[in-house]
Design goal:
By secondary structure, the protein is mainly alpha-helical. About 100% of the residues lie in helices and about 0% in strands. The chain is rod-shaped, with a radius of gyration of 48 Å.
Length: about 110
């Protein structure tokens, strides 16, 4: 009975050693997977930060371009108004010059009589 107990304890120790040896590769694999997962997560977080920064920069640039476009449109409207005013003044000046020219011709004709 004592021999069976010792044999049983010996088998138990042998199984415990075999179990430890069998689980070592699995533990190493788990560690490798955890390390790889952590590295991948860190890479994704870096990529996410870079994309977020790029997005923020693009949005700021868009805001600047939108402001510049609005200012350009306002300037265009102002310039169109000035052109319209100047065209009206030019037409009035041309009409005035035409009537003055006609008056000069009339006065010349009267002098020649």
């Amino acid at each position: 009975m004592l021999q069976r107990l010792e044999a049983s304890e010996q088998r138990s120790e042998t199984l415990a050693q075999q179990l430890a040896e069998a689980t070592r590769p699995l533990l190493r694999q788990l560690q490798t997977l955890q390390t790889s997962g952590s590295q991948q997560q860190a890479a994704w977080e870096r990529q996410e930060r870079q994309l977020a920064d790029a997005l923020a920069e693009a949005q700021a640039h868009l805001a600047q371009l939108t402001d510049a476009e609005r200012a350009a449109r306002e300037e265009l409207l102002c310039l169109r108004s000035k052109v319209s005013t100047l065209e009206s003044k030019l037409k009035a000046a041309q009409a005035n010059a035409q009537s003055s020219q006609e008056r000069v011709v009339e006065l010349q004709a009267e002098l020649d009589r």
